Amino acid sequence: MATTGISPAALYPRYLHCLAEADEPAAVEVARELLDAGVPADRVLLDLVAPAQAEVGERWARNEWSVAQEHAATHVSERVVAAIAAYANPRGDRGRIVVACMDGEWHALPARLVAEVLRLRGWQVTFLGASVPAAHLVSYLHRHDAYAVALACALPMRLPQAHRMIEACQRSDVPVVVGGRGFGADGRWARRLGVAWAPDGPTAADLLGDERVLRAVAPADLAHLADDEYAGLVGRRGELIDSALADLAQRMPGFGDYTPAQFDSTVSDLGYILDFLAAALYVDDGSLFTEFVEWLVTILASRGVPAAAVGATLRHYAGVLHDFPRAGAYLRAGGASLPAAGRRPLPSEA
Ligand code: B12
Questions:
Q1: What InterPro entries does UniProt report for this protein, alphabetically (predicted)?
Q2: Which of 3, 262, 282, 344 is the most exposed place for a label (fewest CB within 10 A)?
Q3: Rounded distance, CA 305 to CA 312, Å?
Q4: Cα torsion 57, 59, 63, 67: sign
């Protein structure tokens, strides 16, 4: 039982301050105080480290913290997770679970938290970390006689790649559980891909305890891919970015004065728009794209880029993709979700 007054919630502000100051020893000390007071290690991971990392993301999104501050804070959290794991030092005797991030996925910390929770629940865990190529993962699973694999995906735009990885594991008959923000808050895109999903480590541990439930998932439902919109969009990615850049150069006053860094982030954003659109086509769910547009506008607004620029690009892509009915509908819905200023045409469009 935890000593009165010492709880993750009570020490959270102090912990967050340690992250803000990148003060690793002080952050580890906060976690130790909780553990010494009898707070279970999984609660320290899930009620202190996890929400603090989400807050780090909010501060980065609001442009209050630079990328460097986010990296420093994340590094401190990684050290804290390692310290908690060393303190608890569980010796599991249940089967081996391999925890890995999807190919191209660099958010290793959420997966690490899940790995530590599984270990605390008695599983033997091998943590493979960020961006594991599918072929390497499958041969690893065979060689190490894994009971199951837990795959993490933090970005919905990686869902098509995630599906290839899930299929590769399922083909080798290793049960799979997935998780992470990339599958949607309620895991609906995992259901579409025909794979078991858990919202967090403890639920994943329960699911892994019942192989029957783990394997009893409905198969992937991707009949819509027959319209080839997903493949067509992916094939035209480079050409579409070039045409959107030319369109912005023509329509947006000041675009010609962008610094090389601003130009590079614009190219990245134009690519993200297409990658999220492609992922929405893949799972046949326009809400994936609309949620992304809402997020992008918030991020760009805090960095001084007007929502109208996003609106113009969505209209441009919709025009070029006139023979892609699903993509067109998602782009229009995305445009309609913009704040009023973003829906108004740029001066050159009026
Ligand atoms: C740290 C961080 C990074 C670090 C990751 C370093 C590391 N070692 O992990 C770096 C710098 C690499 C990074 C990069 C990027 N990031 Co980032 N990142 C974050 C941040 C701040 C924290 C991630 C984290 O640890 N969260 C805490 C965990 C505990 O929360 P969680 O992910 O929800 O996980 C819980 C559950 O989802 C679940 N779960 C998670 N994984 C799994 C797996 C399984 C199997 C199971 C069962 C459950 C499960 O359990 C967890 C515990 O409860 C988040 C903000 C956030 N809100 O999460 C952004 C965030 C995820 N990143 C974001 C973005 C956009 C990016 C970049 C595209 C930025 C860029 N322009 O380059 C790149 C993409 C890189 C890539 N290809 O993967 C956005 C995503 C937005 C979106 N629309 O999808 C976020 C939300 C930030 C924001 N507020 O906008 N990022």
A1: Cbl-bd_cap, Cobalamin-bd, Cobalamin-bd_sf, Met_Synthase/Corrinoid, Meth_synthase_dom
A2: 3
A3: 12
A4: negative
Q: What mean pLDDT comes out for the span 193-212?
A: 95
Residue 179 Cβ inside 6 Å of ligand 1? The answer reads: yes
Strand-pair partners of 151:
100, 178
For 154-171, the pLDDT digits (tens) are 999 999 999 999 999 999
User: What domains sit in the chain, N to C, each tagged with a CATH number?
Assistant: 1-89 (1.10.1240.10), 90-221 (3.40.50.280), 225-349 (1.10.490)
pLDDT tens column, 253-277? 788 888 999 899 999 999 999 999 9
pLDDT, tens digit, 9 for 90 and up, residues 298-341:
999 888 888 888 999 999 999 999 999 999 999 999 999 988 76
Q: Is 150 in the pocket of ligand 1 (CB under 6 A)?
A: yes
CB of 52 sitting under 6 A from ligand 1: no
Residue of the nearest CA to atom 44 in ligand 1? 179
Helix, strand, coil percent values for the chain (each to nearest 5): 65, 5, 25
Tokens representing 34?
Answer: 């909780």
R_g over Cα of the chain: 22
Which of 157, 102, 197, 101 is closest to 292 using CA atoms? Answer: 157
